[in-house]
Amino acid sequence: MRRISLAWQIFIGLILGIIIGGVFHGNDTVSNILQPFGDIFLRLIKMIVIPIVVSSLIVGVAGAGDIKQVGKLGFKTLIYFEIVTTIAIVVGLLAANIVHPGTGIDMSSLTKTDIHSYVQTTKETSEHGIIDTILNIVPTNLFESLSQGNMLPIIFFSVVFGIGVAAIGEKGKPVLHFFQGVSEAMFYVTNLVMKVAPIGVFGLIGVTVTQFGLKSLIPLSKLVLTVYGTIIFFIVVVLGLIAWIFRVNIFHIFKILKDELILAYSTASSETVLPKLMQKMEKFGCPKSITTLVIPTGYSFNLDGSTLYQSLAALFIAQMYGIHLSISAQISLVLVLMVTSKGIAGVPGVSFVVLLATLGSVGIPLEGLAFIAGIDRILDMARTACNVIGNSLATIIVSKWEGKYDKAKGEAYLAEISGERDAQYATES
Q: Which residue ranges traverse the bilayer (predicted)?
């Protein structure tokens, strides 16, 4: 009997969700029936993410055991994140200037979507600058951060605690063994949760298409095509070139993360693949101490797809209103995005909140976001997949930068994946 791979199961769930959503477009009853399927899957993922991040970080840092080494690693990682996300912002601006996706759009043909909740969130975070971000990394109450899922304070505590476990030597070994057990148990739970991923994808995409319909894409098809084309260019050319400089084949990352990329794309949530991403990067030759620090931190500071989209969408809205932004205004936009995209990391609907916080600074009407809010989910799918690839590549590069990448282990894992695929094809034929 043929065994359908997880990637194909997720893809089938995606297609079925689109079909059901298209057939029952505008039917609230069907939307309400589908909603719990997606919500339960996302809740299962959120349930396992924090225990995995905490236990893996403590084990990884305690294994490294050197506070200077951890500090140097964190500094290098943040430098890499800032360089690559700035490149992503510039690529988004260049694409918008070349293609002009917003020029000539009849705004009367577009459906406006309520963005009140995003505006409210932006008001709450408008005073939230770099200093506040740094202060908020240090938790005043760990359990409050855990209950709110605020990842940066959790990462900070886990790193400090891991250093403490390493510092007390033999006395810390029982603690280390405990968290090793927690980490292994949670990865087993992850494998169980992933079995319901196709059902979750079916529910999530089904609700999206049911509510907005495929027709909503037509007036904004130029924006959708520009965003997708630019993200593909950024992944293959820009990230591919960075990978080549560090002697990494970007297509090997695609091969390793096939299941995760389809899942991240389908759910528009990079959180759904965080546990497996950490696991696979470790199998690919990256040490645990680097994998467990770079990937969770990257989820707040290295959102390549999101920052690229933010700059492109800002110019799209300006073009839609016939506003010409000078070179100096666009440079100002780059500088503002470099700050705002980090300053409110972790806020729900972060891409929209960042855009709302940014548009006013360069004189672009905030109301323009209401015209693209309806298709944001479709765009979010592409930028989420880009974020996943960007963080995976960052982990490999930082590992090589530190001289700790295990090339033999990575090649063995690639060979194992190729062997499994060959065996699957043989079974199917």
A: 7-24, 44-65, 77-99, 151-169, 189-213, 225-246, 312-338, 350-373
Q: Can you read off the two tokens belonging to residue 317?
A: 């809205």
* Distance of alpha carbon 420 from alpha carbon 284, whole angstroms: 15
Q: Which domains does the chain have, with CATH numbers?
A: 6-428 (1.10.3860.10)
Give the single-character DSSP code of 257: T
- Residue 370: how many other CB atoms lie within 10 Å: 18
Q: Which two tokens stand for residue 1?
A: 């009997």
The upper half-sphere exposure of residue 301, i.e. CA atoms within 13 Å in the direction of its Cβ, equals 24
Q: pTM here?
A: 0.84
pLDDT tens digit sequence for 351-389: 666 777 777 777 788 777 878 877 788 888 899 999 999
Q: State how far the Cα of 351 lies from the Cα of 369, in Å rounded to an integer.
A: 11
Q: Distance between alpha carbon 354 and the CA centroid of its chain, in Å?
A: 15
Number of residues written out for the chain: 429
Q: Is 307 exposed, middle or buried (0-12, 13-18, 19+ CB in 10 A)?
A: buried
Q: What is the mean pLDDT of residues 176-199?
A: 91
d(CA 73, CA 69): 6
Supply 288's token pair: 């645990």
**What is the rounded CA–CA span in Å between residue 195 and residue 174?**
33
127 in helix, strand or coil?
coil
| Residue 373: other Cβ atoms inside 10 A | 18
Q: Token pair of 47, please?
A: 């349930």
Segment holding 389, helix H or strand E: helix 376-401
pLDDT in tens, 275-299: 899 999 999 999 988 998 899 888 8
Degrees, nearest 5: CA angle 393-397-402:
150
State the virtual CA torsion across 247, 252, 256, 262 in degrees, nearest 10: 120
Longest dimension (CA), the chain: 70
* Distinct helix (H) and strand (E) counts, the chain: 21, 0
Instruction: Answer with the residue of higher pLDDT: 138 or 347.
Output: 138
3-state secondary structure 159-207: HHHHHHHHHCHHHHHHHHHHHHHHHHHHHHHHHHHHCCHHHHHHHHHHH
pLDDT in tens, 225-256: 999 999 999 999 999 999 999 999 999 999 99
Tokens of 109: 């043909």
- Locus of tokens 């769930």: 13
Q: Quickly state the pLDDT bin for 337 (edges 50, 70, 90).
A: confident
